[in-house]
Design a protein that fits this description.
254 residues, mainly alpha, 11 helices, 80% helix
């Protein structure tokens, strides 16, 4: 049972970086590739149908972490408190930007929320790199450790590349090139490598700190039956909004 839930947690975390990762990457590229208001609208439109479905993976990761590995809750929240708060604020700003940028007309209004999308995406991308290093070192290192900061930079670059590949797959005119679905899958796998490396390195520790069998049994009964529903819904989103399916008709969130 412990191995099954470890595999489930690994899949969820990898899925988050592979899917939500390109949303963050598009946000990072918004000031770079978005040379005009129209191009920014098209970039947001390209990822808009996927954002909410992709964020479900983070909710599932958090629920699994604190349900299957309850001993880590205190370590994560206490050891990474400033970082967790910063990442939550980044998440809120990024999502607020997506929802508010077209609520009112005007260059200043839209420019402000476009900036929030970019800064929020940067905060999340960089923060994940720092958090992964802290997890790999047992939450005992400083959040300003040079290696952790470097991993934050690497994570940001990986997600930016993943976002660029996504745009090249879904709306090639924005990226200047065309990429296949296979290329997008590869960039998603690359974006998930740091998280998978940390998980595999922490596997003995996680298995030793797994919740009791009784708790895992209850979680299995309550959570696992919904897994096929989530996967089917995710598949429906990708099938419905694949390239050529009204990629530029949805200008933003409404």
């Amino acid at each position: 049972m412990e191995l099954m839930w470890f595999a489930c947690f690994t899949l969820l975390l990898a899925g988050y970086f592979a899917l939500e990762g390109f949303d963050l990457g598009v946000g990072l590229l918004l000031p770079i590739l978005g040379k005009s208001a129209d191009s920014k609208d098209r970039m947001v439109a390209a990822m808009a149908p996927f954002v909410l479905a992709n964020e479900v993976w983070l909710v599932a990761v958090a629920g699994t972490l604190f349900g299957v590995y309850p001993a880590l809750e205190g370590e994560v929240l206490f050891g990474l408190y400033p970082l967790v708060v910063a990442m939550l604020l980044s998440w809120i700003l990024r999502d607020a930007g997506l929802w508010f940028r077209r609520r009112i007309g005007g260059t200043a209004w839209r420019g402000f929320w476009d900036l929030m999308i970019a800064l929020g995406s940067l905060g999340l991308s960089f923060g994940w790199g720092v958090a992964l290093y802290a997890a790999a070192t047992g939450f005992g290192s400083s959040l300003l450790n040079p290696v952790g900061l470097m991993l934050g930079v690497v994570m940001t670059l990986l997600l930016a590349f993943h976002g660029w590949t996504f745009l090249a797959w879904r709306s090639p005119g924005l990226a200047g090139v065309t990429r296949s679905g296979r290329a997008l899958a590869v960039s998603g796998a690359v974006a998930a490598i740091p998280a998978l490396g940390v998980l595999l390195g922490s596997m003995p520790y996680l298995l030793d700190h797994t919740a009791p069998a009784e708790t895992l049994n209850v979680l299995s009964v309550m959570a696992l039956p919904f897994a096929p529903i989530v996967l089917i819904a995710q598949g429906w989103v990708w099938r419905t909004f694949r390239p050529g399916k009204d990629a530029v008709r949805i200008p933003s969130f409404f």
